[in-house]
Design brief:
The protein is α+β, with helices and mostly antiparallel strands. Helices cover about 45% and strands about 10% of the residues. It contains nine helices and six strands; from the N terminus they run H-H-E-E-E-H-E-H-H-H-H-H-E-E-H. It has a six-stranded mixed sheet with strand order 1-2-4-3-5-6.
Length: about 250
């Protein structure tokens, strides 16, 4: 998890008679305060000043499957649950800004989607948000895609275009545009994203990490037992073998 930022202290050691230095210091402090106010306003306006990244332009409905509507289940710590009550249970904990989660999704994403669509497993996605405000926004937006039947596609798209942490990529403006390019054009989706309507769900997922023994992402449980890869890579064959063994 990210380290706490170090506090910067303002140097107040200027001599009383040095009015030029004092005025410069006062001016710099005022500029910092004003910049903070401007940043806060822009943040509340969903990062609308950030231009649309080229990566988003590649998103389309071309790879959309049949719509699937999972549930956001309090019993599953507010995870997004597909195929509830299937005997084989897979829980995936991810953060949309986590690069290792992208590695996991690049290797396992299609396989997990097959398990979901073929109703072979109950798959629950727990979207964490410990890497900053853009993780919060992205998780909220993914939850907003649930009633639209496009969580799988939206979840995949966010990992496909993942950029640097808190770089402006996951502004609300961009998150709505991603939905539009996936065919999610309802006003309710845009309102859900812009108004952080799933914010409480995101907070509940975050607060449930500790009790589930989740210290980082990605973390995967198969039938309640942690899946631990044996190499630094995410190998599909190894994951498949663990899932198949759990079916026995």
């Amino acid at each position: 998890m990210p380290k706490e930022p170090r506090q910067r202290k303002v140097n107040n050691s200027a001599k009383p008679g040095d009015t030029v230095t004092r005025n410069i210091v006062i001016g710099m402090i005022a500029l910092v305060v004003l910049s903070g106010v401007i940043f806060t306003v822009l943040d509340k306006q969903s990062g609308s000043s950030v231009a649309l990244p080229a990566s988003i332009e590649s998103i389309s409905t071309a790879n959309n499957g049949e719509p699937l509507t999972p549930t956001i289940s309090p019993e599953a710590d507010y995870g997004v649950v597909f195929n509830a009550d299937s005997p084989l249970k897979i829980d995936v904990w991810e953060d949309f800004q986590c690069p290792y989660c992208k590695f996991f999704e690049d290797s396992m994403g299609d396989y997990l989607e097959d398990l979901i669509r073929e109703k072979q497993a109950e798959v629950t996605f727990h979207m964490a948000s410990f890497l900053g405000q853009e993780s919060v926004r992205a998780s909220n937006a993914a939850n907003c895609a649930v009633p639209e039947g496009r969580f799988i596609e939206y979840h995949r798209a966010l990992f496909d275009i993942q950029g640097g942490e808190n770089s402006g990529l996951f502004s609300n403006k961009n998150l709505v545009e991603i939905g539009t390019r996936l065919g999610i054009t309802s006003e309710s989706f845009a309102n859900c994203v812009n108004n952080n309507e799933s914010g409480d769900v995101v907070k509940n997922v975050a607060s449930s990490m500790k009790k589930n023994g989740v210290e980082g992402t990605p973390t995967v449980f198969i039938n309640g037992k942690p899946w631990n890869r044996t190499t630094s890579e995410f190998r599909l064959e190894e994951f498949k073998a663990a899932v198949e063994a759990a079916k026995q």
